[in-house]
Amino acid sequence: MSCSKSMPLTFFFFFSVFLHLANAADPLYHICFNPENYTAKSAFGANLNTLFNVLSVQAPPSGFGVVSTGQYYNKVNGLALCRGDVSSTDCKTCVVHASYELRNLCSYNKGAVIWYDNCMLKYSDTYFFGQIDGQNEFSLLNVKDVKDPESFNPKVHELLSSLSYKASSTLKFYATGEMELEESEKLYGLAQCTRDLSSGDCKKCLYEAISKIPNCCSGKRGGRVVGGSCTVHYELYPIVNGTGY
Length: 245
Hints:
Layout: E1 12-15, H1 17-22, E2 29-32, H2 43-58, E3 64-69, E4 76-82, H3 88-105, E5 111-115, E6 119-124, E7 137-142, H4 149-168, E8 174-180, E9 186-193, H5 199-211, H6 213-217, E10 223-227, E11 230-235
Parallel strand pairs: 1-7
Antiparallel strand pairs: 2-5, 3-4, 4-6, 5-6, 7-10, 8-9, 9-11, 10-11
Helix pairs in contact: 2-3, 4-5
Domain Gnk2-homologous: 26-128, 134-239
Keywords: Repeat, Secreted, Signal
Signal peptide: 1-24
């Protein structure tokens, strides 16, 4: 699928739980969002390589890193975010792999982002820190339907809203939780923001993501809205490891 800026930036994918479990190492999606390119062996390219190397060291200890390299027209800004339950070792592995994949998938592009289950990596020639990224996003859903969507959908909204408030109130902008349902089922949820945002903007980003759940995932057993600044995710099976930073 093309990464052209002219294409819609919200994409709806139809993944079953089996695909979710099949290969967590595969990227969920990527977007090459800048129409401008840099040339091989350019100062921008060298600065981008430095940025990737720094983020691979900076992000794993806490799960988040943000850095700028170079000056003026050759300056590159980037961040890496790992899911809050991911170990430092797995975080580093994901960030390194993400940087390798972005070099191939968005060759010589001055702005790109890639998402995995374990991490997100984003860079641009423009300064984007502290700003909600409402452009680069996509949605995933579980193709299986719930038995009673009229009862289930409000519970999804309730859980994700609660987690969004909790996440925006913590230092790591990350929260997970669960809710008891009927027939011994549990609903699991996750909310997370990049830590360059303010608490208020984190909450705003998450609530905006939640508002898009009905359009992509109404009545589905699982779904998520994934963006360049925040993510919300729910499933009827555990979605985190229970360990982390």
